[in-house]
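TA notes. Do not distribute before section.
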Amino acid sequence: MGPKIALLLSGFSSDLSAVVCAVQLADRTGRRFYTLQAQDPGGVPTPSRGETTAGGRLLDGFRFVAEFAGVEGVQVTCHLLGAGSVEQVAEFLLANSITCLVVGDWSEGFRKNQEDWLNELRRSLREAPQRFYPDLLVIKAPILAEADLKRIVSQSRRLKKLVVSKKN
């Protein structure tokens, strides 16, 4: 059994590449992962008005994740967190024995906030008495150009059609 994976959506445009990364990682390991998204932007830092969001509305990110994971034959469970605070995310990761967290790399102006937030999350997990794994592996997916993302999704759909046609 491979690592237990969670994807944390933040609303930044890099969420798209993080979805691709999480789905591909899950496909190579346990074929299953969790997706987390904050309902209230109080915890996980969210984009400024100038930053493009991955989905616009709250559930669009979940829809894209579910569709892309389905194309790849990977199972995903989506969870809406209240504020997405470090404590809430840590509780979820601990309760589900998550060993790997996939996030999108935030834009230049937010990288320090992201590092601080992730360091606080790691500290919180290390201090938890029920933690079974020494440290959380965090994978930061880079921002993909829109053309690259469209190519990846298109190739995945074509491969899925080929597999289905060969089975029939």
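Switch to the second chain here.
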Amino acid sequence: MGLELLGILLLAGILLGLGVLLVRLGALGKRLEALDRLASIDASLQSIGESQDQLELRRLEHLLVDIRDGQKRGDQRLAQALEAREQVVAPESGVSTPAPARLGERIINRLLSQGYERIEILTPAEEFEALLVGDGEVRVEARRGGSAYKGRVKVRGGLIIEVQLRPPFSIFP
């Protein structure tokens, strides 16, 4: 009988241990259920991070556009300041007139400041003398954004009044 009693006690101890283990596993399972939310939190954090990256890229893009526009305005003001500096005040009359030999250079500077490249002046240089005292036009060709532009620069008294360049494809509807 002692051996049977020992077996029953051992079996009761094992069952009691299993019961305690099951209770603890149940409590641990409840705690781990709270951790199941971590996957949804991680997905939310990743989507927030991606949207933040896109927001930063948009901000950067807007800043670059602002810088580009400011650069264009600065180039135009610089070209205008150079044109104004090249004017000479005649001592006897007190009237300012443009410096004679720089009209072609000023036209090129103006077009460069407007974003054109590979600029060609088609009007012969001999005709520039007449433009220093009267009205006229200088024919030019240039490229911008991979497109060829043709047109004219209006000049009055040696000063650039207006730039009119159009791409050839704008002529057709």
